[in-house]
Each structure stands twice: as structure tokens, then as C-alpha cells.
């Protein structure tokens, strides 16, 4: 029998999921003295076991003993571009990328140096370093690609580009499968990058009539012989990449902010919504 298990009752704007098999080991920080912000949208870790929490009020670093916060300071170029952070991505060599409401920041956690990029591109919604070491950055105004290490030049992808085209300017998530194909989840379905043409085209894995074909898609991730996608207002969709069929799973709350299947066991997928976490 296929069913979903609800195991957390209240979560807000989840951009990442953290799971622990022994809940007695968890500590909850809600007081400002212990945890300076309470709207966390992303969590990551560096090679020194320091945790980084992205929030709508700044970045928090926790070294196991104390918290250190990073906020935007007006007229100070050494601070982050905006305290409102939408997404974070830990790159190689403990370089942390911050997707803020006012552009992209590169935070070298070893030196403490912060560099600014795409300051005129508004809210950064997604960041991905692919297997070819290219950096992809999604925004609400299109997609950007940095093909070299310096990131001094970004190639824009949007609906008005004739060559570097993508069919929707609103990017919700970026992913890469085991075949090295890059996918963008957008307000108009899932798009995949064509390495030969240098443009995006509609995802060939999405069957006709599938809600993910034209719907508002927030995630597209690979699993064993299938792909999972979340469609706003619909729920989860499982696409069988072998047969070309799909199944739709409705949830009590279909506003899915996070989708996670990187368990030690391949038997589960977890969907984090604004009100609960569902495990299938």
C-alpha cells in the first residue's frame, strides 16, 4: 500500500530538510538569546563541522559553541548584499554561495571574505554547481550561467534571448541527474539544458498531460528508475523514466517547499510543506 506519513506538524518556508533517527538528540532553539533568527530557509555545513543557517534576517554560523551572525550593513561592501536570504549552496573549499533578495554573494568561510555578483538581478532563488564545474544561478528574472572559475561574466537565459533561451523567467530550483543533464524547475514546467544548442528546451521526460508539463514546478529530482517533481497546487508527481508514465500524489498541503530523497535507504522521499513534512 502506498501512503504518506506526516511526522512534523508545523514548518515554515522550508528550503532544506534535516533528519535525525533519534529525536531525543535534537535541541530546539527559539529564544533570541540562543538563536538570533527564527525563519530559517536553508541549512548547510562546512568541512570543519560548522553549521550555517540562512534566514530572512541574515546568515548565522554555529561552531558548536556559539553563534555568529552576518547581516547587511548599509554602505559597507564587506557585508552581505541583503539580510534577506532565499537560498544557500556550499561549494568546494568551504565557499558558501548566498542567494539574497539583492543578488548573489560568495562567502569564503575560511578567510571571511565576501564578494558580490548579479547585484541587479533581484532575488536569487536557486544555485547549482554542476559536474562540469559550471555555476548556475536561478532568479525570478531568468537564469544565469558562469562557465569559468572567476565568475566575472554570466550568460543570461530568459524568454527574450534568441540563443540562450529558457521558456520561463521564474526559476524555482536547479538540478542535475546522473546523465549530466541540467534541469530548471519553473513557473511553466520543467526545462532541460541542451549542450549542443546552448539553450533550454522542454523536459523530454515529462509525459503529455502530466501536471508538471505546464504547471508551476518547484522541484525535479532523480530517483531509482524515476523522477520526482513537486507541482504547486497539485502535490507530488512520480515519473517513470522507463515506461513514460506518471502518478500523482495529492497532499493535504500541496505547497511543497522542499523535496528530499538522499536517505541511506532508497525507500523514502520526504516533502516539506508550509504546514508539515510528508514521507512516502
**Distance between termini?**
11 Å
CATH superfamily of the largest domain: YVTN repeat-like/Quinoprotein amine dehydrogenase
**How would you sum up the global shape?**
globular
Strand content: 35-45%
CATH class of the largest domain: Mainly Beta
- Content-based structural category: mainly beta
Number of self-contained structural domains? 2
Q: Give the number of helices.
A: 0
Largest sheet: 4 strands, antiparallel
Stated plainly, the CATH topology of the largest domain is called Methylamine Dehydrogenase, Chain H
**Spatial order of strands in the largest sheet:** 1-24-23-22
Q: Please state the CA-atom Rg, rounded to the nearest Å.
A: 19 Å
Assembly state here?
single chain
Helix/strand order: EEEEEEEEEEEEEEEEEEEEEEEE
Strands, total number:
24
Mean pLDDT: 87
Please bin the fraction of helical residues.
Answer: under 10%
CATH architecture designation of the largest domain = 7 Propeller
Unreliably modeled segments: 6-15, 18-23
Description:
This protein is mostly beta strands and 280 residues long. Strand 23 and strand 24 (277-279) form a beta hairpin. The chain is built from no helices and 24 strands. It is globular, with a radius of gyration of 19 Å. The chain has two domains: 38-119, Thrombin, subunit H, CATH 2.40.10; 121-279, Methylamine Dehydrogenase, Chain H, CATH 2.130.10. It has a four-stranded antiparallel beta sheet, with no helix packed on it. A four-stranded antiparallel beta sheet has the order 2-3-4-5, with no helix packed on it.
What structural keywords apply?
Methylamine Dehydrogenase, Chain H; Reg_prop; Thrombin, subunit H; four-stranded antiparallel beta sheet; Two component regulator propeller; mainly beta; WD40/YVTN_repeat-like_dom_sf; single chain; 280 residues
Amino acid at each position: 500500500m502506498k501512503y504518506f506519513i506526516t511526522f512534523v506538524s508545523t514548518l515554515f518556508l522550508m528550503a532544506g530538510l534535516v533528519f535525525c533517527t533519534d529525536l531525543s538528540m535534537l535541541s530546539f532553539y527559539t529564544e533570541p538569546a540562543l538563536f538570533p533568527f527564527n525563519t530559517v530557509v536553508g541549512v548547510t555545513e562546512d568541512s570543519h563541522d560548522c553549521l550555517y543557517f540562512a534566514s530572512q534576517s541574515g546568515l548565522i554560523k554555529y561552531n558548536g559553541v556559539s553563534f555568529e551572525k552576518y547581516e547587511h550593513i548599509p554602505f559597507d561592501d564587506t557585508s552581505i548584499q541583503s539580510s534577506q536570504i532565499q537560498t544557500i549552496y556550499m561549494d568546494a573549499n568551504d565557499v558558501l554561495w548566498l542567494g539574497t533578495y539583492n543578488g548573489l554573494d560568495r562567502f569564503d568561510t575560511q578567510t571571511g571574505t565576501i564578494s558580490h555578483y548579479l547585484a541587479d538581478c533581484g532575488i536569487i532563488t536557486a544555485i547549482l554547481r554542476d559536474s562540469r564545474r559550471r555555476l548556475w544561478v536561478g532568479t525570478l528574472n531568468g537564469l544565469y550561467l558562469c562557465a569559468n572559475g572567476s565568475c566575472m561574466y554570466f550568460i543570461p537565459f530568459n524568454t527574450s534571448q534568441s540563443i540562450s533561451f529558457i521558456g520561463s523567467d521564474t526559476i524555482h530550483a536547479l538540478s542535475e541527474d546522473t546523465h549530466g543533464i541540467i534541469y530548471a524547475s519553473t513557473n511553466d514546467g520543467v526545462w532541460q539544458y541542451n549542450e549542443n544548442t546552448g539553450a533550454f528546451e522542454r523536459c523530454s521526460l515529462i509525459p503529455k498531460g502530466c501536471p508538471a508539463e505546464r504547471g508551476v514546478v518547484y522541484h525535479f529530482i532523480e530517483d531509482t528508475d524515476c523522477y520526482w517533481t513537486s507541482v504547486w497546487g497539485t502535490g507530488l508527481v512520480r515519473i517513470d523514466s522507463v515506461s513514460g508514465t506518471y502518478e500523482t500524489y495529492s497532499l493535504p498541503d500541496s505547497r511543497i517547499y522542499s523535496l528530499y530523497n538522499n536517505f541511506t535507504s532508497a525507500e523514502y522521499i520526504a516533502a516539506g510543506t508550509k504546514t508539515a513534512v510528508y514521507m512516502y
